[in-house]
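Students often ask what a holo structure prediction actually looks like on paper. The answer is less mysterious than it sounds. You provide the chain, you provide the ligand, and the output is a string of discrete structure tokens encoding the 3D arrangement of the protein together with magnesium ion.
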Amino acid sequence: MSALLSTRALSKHFDGLVAVSDVDLDLTVGEVRALIGPNGAGKTTLVGMICGRIAPSSGTVAFDGRDITALPAHKRIGLGMAYTFQITSVFARLSVRENVALAARRRLAGGHVDSAVHEALAQVGLEERAGEEAGNLSYGHQRLLEIAMGLAQAPRLLILDEPTQGLSEGEIARFTGLIGGLRGQTTVLLIEHNMRVVWDVADRVTVLNFGEVLAEGTPQEIHENRAVQAAYLGTEAG
Amino acid sequence: MTRQTARILALHGGLLAVLFAAQFVLPAYHHGNLARIMVLASYAIGYNILFGYTGLLSLGHALFFAAGMYAMGLGIQYGGLSPAPAFLAGVVAGALISGALALLALRTTGVAFMIVTLMFAQAGYLTILYFGEYTRGDEGFVIQTAQRMLWGINLSDPVNRYFAAFGLFAISLSLSLWMVRAPFGRVLVAIRENEDRVQMLGYDTYVHKLGAMVVSGTISAAAGAAYGLLFGYAGASFASVQYSIFPLLWVLLGGAGTVLGPFIGTLFMFYLIDLSSGVTTAYMLIAGVVLVALTLFAPQGLAGEVRRRVWRGLP
Ligand SMILES: Nc1ncnc2c1ncn2[C@@H]1O[C@H](COP(=O)(O)OP(=O)(O)OP(=O)(O)O)[C@@H](O)[C@H]1O
Ligand SMILES: [Mg+2]
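The corresponding structure tokens follow.
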């Protein structure tokens, strides 16, 4: 299968700090890839460079066979990427409906927007909150709204930065089902701390540690990998 | 059409109907005032597009108002234009100058944007003074009644003037109402709320802000051209800082980011100064106290308070 996204030697330095170092990442069309790693491993920085929020210090990003390293964020989104923020970033003073409509309207018009909004809200279980101001939603529901905004864009690559943080057990189960439903059509890059979710939805897992790819493989392989266990225990792998 | 849309059309159409009818009942003094208020409110509507809806605080809109006024006035005075093409020249000048300023100023944000717009407006003011031989500087020049005949209609006649002012206001209001409910305007509001997020939804926020500034500047220039044409005078004071601050005040008072706010604010402030100056020579003091009270008790402006307390869906 062909690669939808490839990064080569992608690196980011913040002054002296190396946040991401020489990352080669290849996502196959239709796969669900989990990106895991301890706090501060560089996960958000890496996806920030992929979707154009953060300029890389060096390295390249290619999407659908095209080098997009120099492309501004909005154009990358236009090519079919969607990004949901780790730190919830909804339009707090606008209605839930309008938040999702803004996401849908870039590709749709007229009545199609309404149906796309309705569908995305139903997928995350927020259809009854459509008329409320987004800022009045609970933290968990704002996370769900972020996901709905991602879905409404009908992206080819959906990047989710810790979507399940702050969700209840029931909402996590719904989310897992949702990602399962996207499998095969939408390529998903999922940053996730909840190992149950990773285990349930990921086809492959990439482990980032101190900005470097520590391991990559199926969830089973990663589970058995001693270096990964060591990283999560906070000790150097021996 | 949804019920919400019907209510919105009824409210805004209702205001236009009232203003149209008012000319038949108002005494001459208020009749004249209202014509002036409608032109100035059109200026405020233009300002509101950029400030209220897009969240960009400009301190240089007098540049656009004056661009419209002078392109029209000089066109008549020295170009021998009749009112219609002169008005058009004013509108085009506003579009060009706001576009050019947008290219420069939108590289900055926040305070820097305020300073850049202020500086360019100051430069415009000084330019008018510098070419005093033609512009007559602060003193300004009168546009004669004979030069204000539009298709045989005398624009200096109060009735015609009211009609013309009403026409400009109705177009500005409708345009603004239509725009803020259209996808383009929705993106502007989203930029005001969270520009970073808008970008990550795939919108080119720079292009949207540029568009907002050109629409804003063009409406402001149309108001400036109309003002000169209807009241027969062009002067450098309309390019001064004061005329950049006025629309900001009107919009803040009436309700930034509401379609009716600019009109309400302009009307309110006009009569506030008018009435208090009738009572005392310290009228600016009274006006000041009322303004402070309003910002304390209605920080969202008058229409903004209505939206907050009564009708959330007010556009
Ligand atoms: N704008 C910035 N300026 C300086 N340092 C930064 C910046 N952004 C991130 N960093 C640093 O880069 C490193 C990687 O941060 P990043 O947010 O990518 O980690 P993460 O894997 O997403 O962590 P978490 O799991 O906590 O979200 C951290 O040490 C962080 O402090
Ligand atoms: Mg992170």
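The two ends of chain A are 35 Å apart (CA to CA).
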